[in-house]
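Researcher: Re-running this chain for the archive, since the previous output was lost when a drive failed. Same request as before.
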Amino acid sequence: MKLPELLAPVGSAEHLKLAILSGANSIYLSGENFGARKFAENFTVPEIREAVKYAHLHNVKVYVTVNILIKEGELEKVANYLLELYKIGVDAVLIQDVGLVKIINENIPKLTIHASTQMNLHNIEGIKWASEHNIKRVVLPREIEMNELKEILDYAHTLGVEIEIFAHGALCYSYSGHCLLSSMQGGRSGNRGTCAQPCREKYELNINKVKKINPKNEGDYLLSPRDLSLFEHLDEIVNLKVDSIKIEGRMRSNDYVATVIKNYRKRLNKLRYDKTSQALNRNIKELERKSKGKKGRSTDLKKAQDKENIAKLKAEQKLENLESLEELELVFNREFTTGHLIPKNNPMIMKRKKPGHQGLYIGKVHRYNPQTEEIHILLKENLIHIPEKGDGILIETNPNLELDNNQNTAENSSKDNKRLKTKQDKRAKRKEKRVRKEINQNQENNNGFIQTYGFDISSKPVLKDSKDKHWRKREKDKDIEGKLLVIKRVKENRKINFPLPKGSKVYLTKKNSLLNEVKDLHHKKENHYIKKSLLELYFRIDGDNYPHLKGNLKLDNGKVITLKVKGETPWEEAIKKPISNETIKKQLLKIGDLPYYIEKITINNNKRLFSPISEINELRRRFFNELEEEMIASYKPKEEDVKIAEENIKGLNEDLRKRIDLKSKVENAENDYNLSAYINSLEILKELIKDKKSVFDRIYLEIPPNKDFEEISQEIIENKSLQEHELNISYCVNFLKEAIEISKDQDYELIWKLPDIAHKQSKESIIKIMGILKKMNMRIDIMTSSIGLDDSLKDKFDVELYGNYPINAYNIETVLELNNYKTLSISPEIYKKNIKDLMEDYYKEMSKGITLPELELLVHGNIESMITRKELVSKKQLKLISKYNQKQRKLNKNFKESEYYIDSNEYYIKNRRDQYYPIKTNLNEDTIIILNCEELCLLDEIDYLKSIGISNFSIDARWKSLDYINDIGKAYRCIIDGKNDMGESEKIIEGYCPALTKANFEKGLK
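Model: Regenerated structure tokens:
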């Protein structure tokens, strides 16, 4: 059984050591610049050099993340940085920007490239593109499902491409590389490593900006997913032959990195070496295999028995891993999910009540005594990590539980009054009333929402067990089965003005013993999971009595290093007692903490010689110092390869520094100014042809879904569309057929805008649709942002390619790499000066006679802030929406059902600043799009854009009315052609667009 590589996150030097000691096979880190975690501690170049040295000595590979999009002015700097990483001997670089792939392949071809998840390669066509571009590993998106993963793995391994998946850590709501929410909100882009995580904020689902859809006690964090954990499914991952499993968390704590890596290492080792664990896994698989094959009534009972047996075996497996599961929850979790990878699990991805760490669930409040301030916690069954003094506790109350507890208090109050005899009793009762009053006020202020109360345990808790015969139970404790933990006193919070009803959930958020274990990891070798290099030593004395030490070191990467060291002085004939072979062996074995395992040592010494122990020690020290240097050097490139790379980068930088007179180049260019429109309606397309001359030169036509928003949301919740994502082929073919016929002999180009995400079923459906159109002798060019699929479709159907802006064209190297496109849309994230720099290099390359795609810029419309495969609407929300729609339909007498019902409702999420983000769906019925709350408008920048060479402009008018498209289009056409007054055009736009923005165009990204 081959285990996958365990890849650990490293955000600091301490992370590095803890990850290696805890059992990581490889680590990934970032420099101070060009990494997707700008706010982690990160590493300077000298620190990276030391990190690589330390890791390689311990047989651990180092991957450096250069996984952001690169601005034009940064190309020289990033090229020099990549060269430095190559010289240091890093094992690979993780890349998002396809322009960097081109720079590396042309200038540093022996630097290993891994495609970051930000590149969003999610189908076999993307894997083929990676293979053709010298990419050795692809990190798949977290949205990949099991059937898609299996296909990609099989295909990738035939091409020699490794596959890496995320196994543990935070989940993004959006597809990586396709999220502009943070960028549009505050100029902090995930594509530039500065994401502000707006998905962890509160949002409100809203219909038509008038109806709030907010079920009781469900939570407001609509875009906040749980944390991913595939720990319990590692056996499946191993059997799939995934090459690497990745742990997310470069900005997490030291104890997170050490604990997560340690437990994943233990589990992986168990799967490989532990016979009991292997037998358990085999039994589960065998039962599942047999159960799947059974059909017919006669086997129903057997299938039920198999199901019961499987459940028992899995419960046994869970108990075996219980300590690890608890530790994983303790160090950080937002509740765990298996994400998209495990079938029928999609609704369990979201965590709406709380966006932060919740800790390990340990039980429920059994009762609380306000007088003595004792909290009695009924612990859950099989709990291993029982709270101790100094540990952290979090209590979560549900207002629905409060009534029962208050009733109990009221029933007992009259009895308690009869027992009030002393002043002390009366004082205690007054205190209880005061606390109870504060509790009620606190509850009213929170409007019935779930509240949390956290503290450190300041005194030793008392643990009681129902099995203990000596425990004298009170009346209130007679129903207890299990263990009860009594926290006697909370010094810092004596007045607990907080409801603690029976049934409140209790979480352990900090475990000091676990923290101390991490702190002591450096010193406790028995807790280390280092994979040491195997070393064979040979000692001999030559004819001149000089000592020789030779070693063969077997590295984990398959290399063997042979080293010979000769003593500086000969040994002398012994006058009294010669030095024994045992003494020599003993001294040579004193290697301390060096990461070698001496599996064999041979001493060849038949002479009666003597040497001071210090000389043997010096020989040993010199040997291991030189061995370390040889080992580190073995990972570095050859000198001749470095010289070639240095010359290449020098030439690249010289070319990048060359400047041209952009103004004169633009003036001399014969530019035809084109205006494109994105639409998704056949009815609007029909109306556009009624004008004698269209204001648009290109129409990017997107096929809308033939289901309404509620129906799609229902299918996402029920996972209907998550297993089979095949598009409605006949609907799509008829839609495109009609669009082609409508556009025949028109003065605009018609381009089919494909979905930006094309997983297995969607991609195969697109190919079928194109094939049917080809048989019908109908041809239509396509717009896509799916790298790999573009070339495949172009080759199969001889179509022109148009690149949509999620393709992330940031710099000239990306444009040069994507020269298979006819037109490329520039990223809407780029600052105006960055666009000017790009255009200067664009015209410089054009002057060399190189054919490049035309560049286009989106100048108006709602930018797509997010595209996601996760649910947005819950079951409870869907019920409320259904009730609202039924009510509206009764009120609307003119409501009529149509063949393809397009709902009249507009759906939004509203943020805390009262901004409304439109929610849309597309042809992929498992995909949701969230648009920006404000419409981009660069009307008054058109002259500037023309002056720097932009000649193609686009307007996103999807989901807009015909009047909007006509009027906005004419307003821009007139300004582009210089035929209209700016004030007049601005008035037209302001009439349609109440909220406008220039996004990052004016201020740039932070």
